[in-house]
UniProtKB/TrEMBL annotation:
PROSITE patterns with a match to the protein in the record: PROKAR_LIPOPROTEIN
Pfam families in the cross-refs: PCuAC (PF04314)
Protein's name according to its UniProt entry: Copper chaperone PCu(A)C
Classification via SUPFAM superfamilies: DR1885-like metal-binding protein (SSF110087)
Length: 152
């Protein structure tokens, strides 16, 4: 005997946007975040720590935050900021998240807020490409192509 319960799936005509997001028919804030120009420098050693260069384009009307970055060639990642105040050379300090402004670009560079990829699992050769994953507070997870690129 067939079930008399109504079922909701992605083809239900009157499906609201909120239910569509909950059911996974459309990702939350789909297409609101793009990660551009992601790259790391080559390294010959296993176990190196490398800064990740990238730009995040947030087209949403609300600010967001980068919470995590995972790459197959690194054991860990850490979000850091560079403190330039005080005496002595600048120092890196871990932070919980990297704030991303609404409706704009945020460049992550080793001179300011950025992601460090820690303990590389292999040497990184110029020209190699990897697919990594960035997790954002509102936009969710985004696949990111990362290129190993020699400094210009």
């Amino acid at each position: 005997m067939p079930s008399m319960k109504p079922s909701l799936d992605c083809r239900t005509p009157a499906l609201s946007v909120a239910f569509a997001v909950l059911l996974g028919c459309i990702p939350a804030l789909a297409g609101e975040i793009d990660v551009l120009h992601a790259s790391v420098a080559p390294t010959e050693k296993v176990g190196s720590d490398v800064p990740l260069h990238l730009t995040v384009m947030n087209r949403a009307a609300e600010a967001d935050s980068l919470l995590r970055f995972r790459c197959p060639f690194a054991n860990f990642s850490e979000r850091v900021t560079v403190d330039k105040g005080g005496e002595g050379p600048p120092s890196k300090r871990p932070i919980q998240a990297i704030a991303l402004k609404a409706s704009g670009e945020t460049a992550l560079t080793p001179e300011g807020m950025h992601v460090m990829l820690l303990q590389t699992r292999q040497p990184l050769v110029a020209g190699e490409r990897f697919t990594c994953s960035a997790s954002f507070r509102k936009a969710g997870s985004v696949e990111v192509p990362v290129e190993v690129r020699a400094a210009k």
